[in-house]
Design brief:
This protein starts with a strand and ends with a strand. It is 12% helix and 37% strand. The N terminus is likely disordered. It folds into 3 domains: 115 residues, Nucleic acid-binding proteins (OB fold (Dihydrolipoamide Acetyltransferase, E2P)); 74 residues, Nucleic acid-binding proteins (OB fold (Dihydrolipoamide Acetyltransferase, E2P)), CATH 2.40.50; 72 residues, OB fold (Dihydrolipoamide Acetyltransferase, E2P) (Beta Barrel). By secondary structure, it is mainly beta.
Length: 322
């Protein structure tokens, strides 16, 4: 695996929504009219919760200190040329943190009214950050919602990218909810970019190679796993998101259920972990959905060119080339 460094976004301005709300700098901007004026002068991207959608013009009300925050409907989201912001795009922001730049503060009324633009913050993010990303870049992301075919993730200022279900981990899952809760903060790798600049991302490359995952286990151990597939010749049991072993057929196991398995052997040359089921549990969870464990230091390594999952000693090659 070759790796490199990608500079952090300037002042971390283009992080996913929800990341900057608690920072001292952001609080200083949104806690008073004077702070909002400073944000307007500097062009800073700020963040605060959207608390209401007006029924008449579908503008968003944003909770600010010392001022009323308004994001007009046309300023809620970045759209293509000729496209209008859909009502659902406005409604679904209520109750969530939204990023914005301050366009104008009307100090002639009490309390002052600050007119904000999420669209402009997203435009800045696209121009100054996302447009420069290339395949292999490692970036922070936040899971916004889930579908059977994948997870949608915020890759900066509310701009959404697709993380396909088969790119979440090497071990196969039927639905992203089995791996990633909504609102979880993760890292992803840029996989591709289309002609319109939209990104598709992947995640499994951060969760370790076969050898890195297998090194956590030894023959003779009994460990907890999740049944991922039941076949006539055996049962596939997930030990980690990037490591699955094969057990001999066993009664009463169900796909998605938990199991205690005895590790009989680990064979790197064939990427095999041989197991024996010693207990199956339908109604008990032996392992909750937890934050993913990364085998790459995402704080320092910002780019990978190639990731090889399979061991060098294995004839079968499984790798991702960016």
């Amino acid at each position: 695996m070759r790796s490199g460094f990608l500079p952090e976004p300037e002042n971390e301005a283009y992080l996913p929504e929800g990341y900057r709300a608690g920072s001292a700098e952001n609080r200083a901007y949104v806690s008073s009219a004077a702070g909002l004026l400073r944000a307007m002068e500097t062009g800073a991207i700020c963040e605060a919760p959207a608390v209401m959608c007006d029924s008449g013009d579908y503008s968003l009300r944003v909770e600010l200190g010392g001022a009323v925050g308004i994001i007009r409907r046309e300023e809620v989201s970045l759209t293509g040329v000729g496209e209008e912001v859909k009502n659902i795009a406005v409604i679904t922001r209520v109750g969530r943190a939204v990023c914005f730049v301050v366009q104008h503060v009307d100090m002639t009324v009490t309390p002052p009214v600050a007119y904000l633009s999420r669209r402009e913050a997203q435009r800045m993010c696209m121009r100054n950050y996302i447009s420069d990303l290339i395949p292999g870049d490692i970036i922070p992301a936040k899971v916004t919602h889930l579908e059977r075919f994948g997870a949608f993730v915020d890759i900066g200022c509310g701009i959404i990218s697709l993380l396909p279900v088969d790119a979440i981990s090497v071990s196969r899952i039927s639905h992203p909810k089995e791996r990633l809760p909504v609102s979880s903060r993760i890292h992803v790798v840029v996989k591709s970019k289309d002609g319109m600049g939209r990104l598709c991302v992947t995640h499994r490359e951060l969760c370790g190679t076969w050898e890195e995952n297998a090194a956590m286990f030894s023959p003779g151990q009994t460990v907890a796993g999740i049944v991922r597939s039941v076949e006539s010749y055996g049962i596939f049991v997930e030990l980690t998101p990037n490591l699955t072993g094969l057990a001999e057929p066993h009664d009463d196991v169900t796909v998605g259920g938990s199991a205690a398995v005895y590790i009989k052997n680990i064979v790197p040359e064939r990427m095999k972990v041989k197991l024996a089921v010693v207990g199956a549990y339908r109604g008990e969870l032996l392992r909750d959905v937890s934050p993913p464990r990364y085998f790459i230091d995402t704080e320092t390594v910002r780019h990978i060119d190639c990731w090889r999952y399979s061991p060098e000693c294995c004839e079968r090659v499984i790798e991702t080339v960016f």
